Amino acid sequence: MPHFLLAAAGVWLMAAPAVLGYGDPAATSDRIAGPALAAIGFLAGFQITRGLRWLNLGTGAWLVVAPWLLGFPAAATVNSVVIGVAALVLAPWGKPDQRRYGGGWVALWRPGATSADDLPARDG
Q: Which residues are within 8 A (CB) of 122 and not within 5 positions of it... i.e. 6 or more apart?
């Protein structure tokens, strides 16, 4: 659930420059970070792609430091920092899926090897 909230925050970032009325460079930053946050958040919401959640730490860090590096107006600064901190807090939530899907690469050359019982044991 927290990753879908980050996806919604990414959509908000894309709309924020028009809604809050600020321009470049803050608008450009939000229009780049917004789709990244949304896409990664959406994909990390599913068990099998949960490992992608760590990519939103970079997006969140950028959103926190960008206002001072690029000189954002006040509204853009507050918006960027709040969403950046939320991304830094919510991104690590959840564990990757430990189940195996589709038999892995072995399924390509061993027909019928689609369950974990049919696959060779992994070390470690």
A: none
Q: What CA–CA distance (Å, rounded) separates 43 from 65?
A: 25
Provide the number of structural domains found in the chain.
2
Mean pLDDT by 10 residues, the chain (124 residues): 83 90 88 90 77 84 92 89 91 65 62 54 54
On whether both 8 and 68 belong to a single domain, the answer is yes
73-106 pLDDT per residue, tens: 888 899 889 999 998 898 877 665 556 556 566 6
- The residue segments making up the domain with residue 39 are 2-93
Residue by residue, DSSP assigns 52-121 as GGGHHHHHHHHHHHHHHHHT--HHHHHHHHHHHHHHHHHTT-S----S--TTTTHHHHSTT--SGGGSPP
